[in-house]
Structures are given as structure tokens and as C-alpha cells.
Amino acid sequence: MKNIKLSTVRYQLRQSGFAILALIGLGFSISAKAQQTEGMVTYEYKYYWTKVNSRLTFLSKEEKDRMKLTWGNEEDGPGTKMKLTFNDKQSIYTYFSDQGQTEDGRYSWRQSDYLIHRNFEQEKLIENHEMLGKTYLLEDSLMTYNWRIQNQIKDVAGYVCMKAETFDPIKNHKITAWFAQDIPVSAGPERYFGLPGLILELDINDGDVIVAAQKVELKNVDKELALPKMKGKKIKNNDYDQMLKKHIFDSIKAQRNPYWSIRY
Amino acid sequence: MRKLLLLALLWPCMSVLYAQTPNRFQIQGITADTSSTPLGSATVMLLQRKDSSLVNFTRTNDKGAFAMRNVKRGDYLLKISYVGYIPFQQDIVFGDKEIVDLGTLKLKAITKELFEVVVKTARAPLSIKGDTIEYNAASFKVPPGSTVEDLLRKLPGVQVDQNGNIIAQGQQVQKVTVDGKRFFGSDPKMATQNLPADAITKVQIFNDKTEQSKVTGVDDGKQEKTVNLELKEGFKKGGFGKLTAGLGADGNGNAGPRGEIKGNYNKFDDKNQFSVIGLTNNTNQTGMSWDDYQDFRGSSSFNSWNDNGDFGFGGGGGRYIIIGGDDDGGLSIPVGGGNGRGYSNNIAGGINYNYNTKKIKTNASYYYNSTRQVVDAVRNRENFLQNGSFKTEEESSQINFVGNHRLAFRHEQTVDSLNAFIFTNNSRYNVGDTRLNSLQEFFRNNNFKSNETTINNATNVDKIETANTLIYRLKFKKNKGRSFAASASYNFTNNDGVADQKSLNLFYNATDPTDVMRRMLDLTNNTGSRVSQLKSSLLFVEPFAKRFFWESFVNLSYRSDNVDRDVFDLAKDSGRRVPVDSLSSFYKNSYNYARIGSSVRYSYKGLNFSGGLAVQSFQIDGKFALGQNPASFININRRFTTWIPNASLNYDLKNNRYLWSGYDVSVSQPSTRDLQPVIDNSNPLIIRQGNPDLLPTVNHNINFGYNMFNPASFMNVNVNMYYSYNVNQVVYNQQVDPTTLITVTKPVNITGGQNIGSYIGFGFPIKKTKASMNINFNPGFSKNLTPINGVLNQTNTDSYRFGTRLDLTPSDNFTIFANANWSVSNTRYSINTGQNQQIVNHSYSGTMNIRLPKDFFINSNLNYQIYKNERFGFNQQVPILNTSIYKILGKAKKAEIRLSIYDVFNRNLGVSQFANQNYVSQERIQTLARYGMLSFTYNMRGMNTNIKRRGGFF
């Protein structure tokens, strides 16, 4: 008896989430019961640098093999924890903690400024990037990604997710996202969004970087969604893309690794 | 309400006005399961049919209904997904009507078993292709050595009976294919019973047309259950190797032909790495290169950073990397070396094995190397006394052989998330022998030969060394940051040596040339030495407040040395061994060392600071006696206690800027040899005396540094400064007898020696990607104190070094990397200002690469050294130019043929000059100079044809 009740409640909740999504479109606002469409996801961001470096066109096969053999086994360490705070109107993605540190905490380092804000309602974005020796504040309207939906499902952090793919023409990266069918929010980690469900796993360029959800908490996050004060040189989408493009081109030409100083 | 909801669903396209054109459509439908229960909240996606691009999406309401308005005419696919159901797909066909009603769309549930086991438990991705569901077999755990059949038994919806027949989803499997192909005929069991499970990455189960319908092309409507197994890609598995052989002629007549062979081979998969390496040459290349070392050692190349069990400030005790080592010493494999002096023949080779899993890292390696070196030298030396000087001239010929067998074993095991240990063993068996023939002549101011020595020495050394360390590390579950580590080490060295010394000394009388005093020496020394050491360290780290750690360490060490030296005289009694008690000695020393220290560390957001204090006690208990069967011993019992402060700062600033600073104190104990109150006159012209009153040397060091780089403009700045101050530095007091020219040295403590200096570097591109420049300036000032003939002499050296580097990479076909360094050092002496001198060192070096058509390349290296010291009239210029032309062969660019000329100008004369406070010397060694070589290389991974980069980091 109890079981049936519970499932009914869940069903209703799911429906109310849907209803809220609908009502928002009409300008209504009820947030008290909006459990499915707001919350916080903790991700682990793992950067496989030997894979990334293996893509550097100026390295010989011998150098790539040497790097993989020497360091390939050292990449099992923990990645960087990231968090995505979202509701159906907006999302903020940034570091989970305010500093980087070793596992035992005895050594810490500064994390480059990095915050991604998406406002789905106003179709606007704000991004804070410390890269290429400067801090930038990107403010512009939302870009669109051409997502291709794939016929694959898998479980990520307890949610059944469907696969979608897109391509980043600036960095030449193949992007694979796994979005939750049960969380009808278009938000996602890093700079990605725009799918029918919340992106819980992101695979950048065939496993060079994996951003995978470890914990999903559906709760009210109105407080956490307040944007912190951010400083930086103002920049627009187009200039940002051009700057990245030029840096990658110059670096490869000068036979340097472009990825030390930009987010992959 | 329903209408309202429908309206709401369309919020993405709300702003677009509803238009009555035939090109805008409304797609609507109802989703339900196979038993017609509506599916609410299902995701409905409109995709482009050609590439599945997402055009629009919505969700169904609680009645399972959805509608998409304002859809332009196009070629679409409607996709509906719902948790636990196979995603539904349907093409959209537009008609005349504005509303495209798809009716009720039924979604099939994924078999509960499949969903629960594959998706939820195994967390494997599930791919749906029509009615094919495939999943990743790697997610299903089977013991190593299992067959595919064992794997299939684990899969949901699959049963394997006793005879090996497979039943999938209730039907017997007729066909098993591997990568879509038939495997060994028609028996499905052939594949499943023979293939190992770990070779499989994916399992697909689907209905296939029968063979007959495939052949005839007529669909008989029958379907066969088929299992397809997809094999793993072999990219994590492989082998590679490289072989170079060369033969050449020496440009200097009488020297023989030159040759070299080197090769290595590696075989690896995701867990195992196996490699062999071998090299032999007579071109003075004593060891392998760093690249070869890395290929040889693989994942074990740089693991020793974690293997230091001597915990200290900084906690880990492992902040320094111990790798490489000099040519003959040390337990680690020698890397680099070569282009040394004289002529050498070298042989080296080894095998290495690494095993790596998440929890276990094991390495074992064996490496042998040997070098036979011929050194023929002419040396001149002038020693300055307070009144006048004397000269020494020497002609010598020496042949050295050294051979080393090295064994290394390392095992690192992560027992669980809290416990881990590392065991390392490094051992070496070393044999060496030396033959030295030399004639030395001593001249007074007026070029009068005062004495002459003919030496014929031979030594044989036989040495065994082993070092073993066990480190255990413990973390605590409840308190993240608290940790404990313990280590224990046992090191042992046994060294047996025989040295035969034959010399004839002639002392000439200044006034009567016929009056010559002869002294014959024919000695044989047998030395046996055994050193053993036991060490143990503890480290405890406690996070006592937010961002603060308290780190404490204890080090204990006991070392025991036993040295027995027996000297016999063969000259006195016509070849019979006569013990020489005055030169024979025996000593036994034990050293007890204890250190305890504590520091506080602060760490937050890239600001890392640590400050602490340690106290160490060092105790020597030694006994010493002369003679072969001594009855009485001289005892040395000394104890030193020293306080050691320490501080360090690392600060990680915004935009790639870093700041660091540190203060540390190092303590070196006086060596027992220096403490022994004994006179060592084994070299009759330089007599060494011990000093039992010596105190340990305490060295204070302060450093500061800053660096930044701008990745956008490729600009970088490096600045650092250092200062060091010596307390009780051990220096050798020299006393030269003006009549016999015999030098007596005795170690004494002197405080006040110091060094201060800085390095400032700046790098920037002149033209981005084409030309870049680095300039650096390196001033240094030092003050050294040495007593000479009882007078304390202060030597001040001011040096200024200026360097620049230019990288020109204008195209893929031509590159130049050039360096120039200029340095001037001024040395001033306090007691003999007449000897003040200025030494000028310049060096110009460069590498030029040219890529010619048809895979021809030219590479040239120039290294031009200029050394000037006007006071002594030195002006030495050594330009060494190596150049080669090579062609890469074959389509795959795996082979290379190369013609090289080393030292084109034939100027590698092995000349070195050296001036010190009280002497100046010059040495010339017959050394391998110009030679040409034709060599061939085959590299399984392809030759490197990139000429734009110097190597190093990327």
C-alpha cells in the first residue's frame, strides 16, 4: 500500500515539474513544489593529458608512445570536482571548492577563474574565463549547439541518460553528452546545454576529458543561483572564439601545446 | 486546461505568430505503452532525418499527449524516449493538412532483466539499433581466463546449457559471428568456447535473416537468433623497436675504425611493459640517452621521487628526484655521459619489466654497462708560493676499466584506500681496474729540476652494494589530512681493493747535479671495507585547524664502517712481502644519528607556507690503529648537536605568476678520514693530516624566486636570488715546505665563506611562431677563506654571466637554434694581490637544420668555446662542429641512412686549463676528434622528421 502511494507521489511530482515548466512559459511562477527542475549536480572533471598531448600534430609517434608508456599509468588520480547549480530558468557551473588541493590537503593551488552562467529565460550568457594570461568576462546571447540525438542509453549517477553528439568547430572537438530523460532542464556542465534533459556526463573528444556526475541533488537552489561579482575584460562570443582559434593556430604552428593555458 | 498545457508546451516557439501557410505544421500524438497506458513526461524530439540533429523538443502531458506547433516542412524523424522503454522512432510525412496527427504511438518496454542488469547494475551503455540491443561486455565481471561462454552465462536473457547451446530471449542461437563475420564454420560453440572473454568489448543479440534468404535474396520471413561478438581494439597493445648501426673511419691516422650499434625493443599492453636495450661503440658514448632511458624504463622512469624514506621538512622527504648518477657511482642506471676525454669502448645492455594495475605497480630491471677508457695526458702545473713558484710537468698513460651489473626491484601496493606500501631494492656489483704509468718532473723558479718521479700503479676494485627500503603509508578514514608514514632501510657495501704502487723518486741536489738521491717504492695495498647502515623514519601529519597542518618527523640511523688496509713492501726484500705497519691501518667507526623535527604548514588557495625547527644529534664512536695486527687503538668519540630551522613559501598568483622563497640549513658531518689524527703519506709529495677537533659544517641558504609567463604573447620572466653562508666550513689548510716542496694539508673549520647571486631571464617572441629570443643575466659574488702557509687568505670572486638564445623557425624546411654566453669573473686574493686575475669565458653554439627535397636533411651543430686568462696568457679556442646529412627512406619513413662527420675542424684536443688561488694548471689529453661515420637506423615507429622543435617539454 505504502509503495503504491510513494510511486503516485513521485508521479505527481514529475507531473508538477512538467506543469511548472509549462506555466513559466505563460509567466506564472510557482516554485514551492518544483523538485524535478532545480538542484545541484556534482561532477568530476578528469583531464587525460597523455591523450590530449597525443593529438599534438607536431609530435612524432615515438614521442607520443614514450609519453604514454611513461605517464599513462599515472592518470588514475582523482579529477577536479565541479558543480552545476540549475533550475529551469538558469544555471551556474563552476568549481566545487574554492581551491585546488592534493588529496591529503597539504598542498593547495589557485584555480583559474572559471564560471559559466546560462540564462535560458532571457537567452543570455555570462562566462568568466581566466586564460591566456588575462581574465575575461564574456557577456552575450546564448549560442546554439547542433545536437544529434543517438540511439544509446546508459545510467549516469542513477539516472537513465540518452546520448547526444555535437561538434566544436573552434577546438575541433567531438562532444558527446548524456542527458537525463527524467530531469527536464536544458542545463549542462562546461559550456554545453540545450538538450531536452540535464546533461549528466560529457565526453570531450573521445575521452580526452570526461566530466561525469557523481551526485545529483534535487532541491531548491535559489540562493546558490545568485551570481558572484566578477571582473574581467568584457568580450563577446565572436571575439572569444576568434581569440581561441588564433591561440590554437599560433601554438600548433610554434609547436607548443595550446592546452596548458585554455580550458580544453 | 489541456489546451492551456498544450500551448505552454510550445514555449520555445511562442513568439512566432501562428500563420496559416501550408509550410507550417502542427505535429501531435499520444504516447502509450503496449497495454495502452499513457506515458506522461516522455521526451518527444523532432530530429533532422539525415543526421539526427535536434530541431525541437517537448514533453508529453499526463495523458501522454504532445503537440509541436510551427514546424516547417522538412525531412524529419520523431523520436520519443521514456525511461525503461526502447526509444520510439517514426518518420514524419507531411500531407495537405496543417495538423499531422500521428495517433497513438506505442513504446515497447526494455526487458526488465536487461534494464535492471545492464543499465542499472552493470552501468553499461545500451545501444538500440532497430530490434538489436547491444551492450558493453567489459562491464560484466568474469574471472581472468574465462571464455566467452562464461561471459554469456552472465548476460541477462541468455542461458547456456550443459552442451554449450545458447538460448537468448527464449530462442536457440543459430549463429555466432565475430566482428560480423562467421567464426570457424557454422558451429556457434566454436567461437564461444574458444575465445577469451577479455578479448570481447561488445555483445549484440539480434534476429538475422536466414542464410538461405541472404543467398537467394528472397525473404523467407524466417529469422535466426544471432549473437555477434565485437573484438577489442588493439590500441593499448603493441610493440616497437629501433636499431642503429654505424661504421666509420677516424680522421687521425693511427686510430682504428669507429663503430656503433644500438638497439631497443619494447612490448606492452595495458598492464605489462617489457623492454630490452643494448649498445656498444668506440665513439665515447658511455650510456643511453634520456629518450632511450625512458623507452627502456617505461612507467618506472621517474618513480623514485616517492621512494625516499628519509622524511623531513616538507613531509614527504621526497621533494628531490634522484635519478641518473655519475658514470661509475650510484645504484641507478647511468644516463647520458659520453663525449668524454680520451678514447673509450663501451658495452651496455639490460632488460626491464613493469607490471601496472590500479593497485599494484611492480618493476624489475637488470642493466650491465662497461667502459674501457684510454687516457694519455700531458699536464703542466705551476704552484705559487709566497716567494716564488715551482712547476710540475707530467706525462701519463692510463687505462681504466669499469663494469657494473645493476639489479633493481620495486613493488608498490595500494592495499586499500588507506594503506599502501613501497618496497625498493637497488643493487650493484662493480668491478674495476686501472693501470697508470706516469713520469712527473718538478722544477724550481730558475727551471732547475729538483726531483722526478716515475709511477707504475695498478688497482683492482671489487664492490657489492645494496640498498633496501620499505615505506608504509597510512591514511585515516575519519580525519582527511591526518596521515602516518614509517620507513625502514638497510644498506650494505662491501668493497675489496688491491692497489700496487711502484715509484722511483729522484731528488736532485741544487748545487751538485751528480748528487742524486734515489727512493724506490714498491708497495701493494689490500683494502677491505664493509659499510652497513640501518635507518628508520617516522612521519605524522595532523590537521589541527582549518588550513593548518602540524607535521612531525623522527629519523634514526646507525651506520657501521669497518676498513682494514694492509700494505706490503715488495722492494725491500727482493719481491718478498714485507708488511709496512706505518701505512697499514685498521678502523672501525660507528655513527649514530637522530633527528626530530616539527613544522607547521598553512595551505589555502595556492598560498603554501611552512615553518619549523629540528634538532639533530650525531655521534661518532671510532677506533683506529696503524699496523696490520694492532694491539692498541686510538679512539675518536665525538658528539654534535645542531638546531636546524626551516621555512618555505610557495605562492600561486593570478594569470600564471608564481612566487617562492625558502630558508634552509644543511649540516654536513666531518668525515672520519678528516677526523683521524693520522698522517697519510701514501703520496710522498702531498701529505694529509687529520684533525680530531673538526666540527660539522652548517650551511645556511636563502632563496627567492618569481616567474610568470603569458601564454597569449609567449612571453616569460624568471627571477631568482640566492644567498648562502657557511659556518665551520671544512677547508684544507695547505703548508708547503719551501725546500722540499712537500705540501702538507690539514682540514680546519672556517666560518664566513659566503655566496650571493641572482638569475634574471626574459623570453619573448620577435615574430610570433617564427623567431623568439631569450636573454638572461646571472651575476654572482662569492667569498672563500683558505689558510695558506698559516695565513688566512680571502678570495673574492665576482662573476657576471650574460646569455642569449635565439630560435629561428622561419619554415618547416629551415631552422636555427643559437646560443651565446659571455662570462667574466674577477678573482681577488687578500694576501697575494699580485695574483688577482680575470677569467673570460665565451661560448657560441648553434644547431641548424635543413630539409631538402626527397626526404634529405642536413643537421649541423657548432659549439665554440673561448677561454681567456690574461694573467697566465691563456687564450684557448675550441670550435667543435658536427654535421650530418641523412635521408629518410621508404613510404612509412621508418628507416634512415646518415653520413656524419664529427668534429669537422679536428679541434677536440682535450685541452683544459685551470687556475686556482695558488696554482695554475694545463692538461692535454689525446681525445677522440674528427671521424666520419655512415650509419643506418630502422625505427618501427617511424623516424622523426620534425626540425622545428628542440625537444624537451611540450
TrEMBL record, chain A:
<protein>
    <submittedName>
        <fullName>GLPGLI family protein</fullName>
    </submittedName>
</protein>
<dbReference type="Pfam" id="PF09697">
    <property type="entry name" value="Porph_ging"/>
</dbReference>
<dbReference type="InterPro" id="IPR005901">
    <property type="entry name" value="GLPGLI"/>
</dbReference>
From TrEMBL, chain B:
<keyword id="KW-0472">Membrane</keyword>
<keyword id="KW-0675">Receptor</keyword>
<dbReference type="Pfam" id="PF13620">
    <property type="entry name" value="CarboxypepD_reg"/>
</dbReference>
<feature type="signal peptide">
    <location>
        <begin position="1"/>
        <end position="19"/>
    </location>
</feature>
<protein>
    <submittedName>
        <fullName>TonB-dependent receptor</fullName>
    </submittedName>
</protein>
<feature type="domain" description="Outer membrane protein beta-barrel">
    <location>
        <begin position="476"/>
        <end position="821"/>
    </location>
</feature>
<dbReference type="InterPro" id="IPR036942">
    <property type="entry name" value="Beta-barrel_TonB_sf"/>
</dbReference>
<keyword id="KW-0998">Cell outer membrane</keyword>
<dbReference type="Pfam" id="PF14905">
    <property type="entry name" value="OMP_b-brl_3"/>
</dbReference>
<dbReference type="InterPro" id="IPR041700">
    <property type="entry name" value="OMP_b-brl_3"/>
</dbReference>
<keyword id="KW-0732">Signal</keyword>
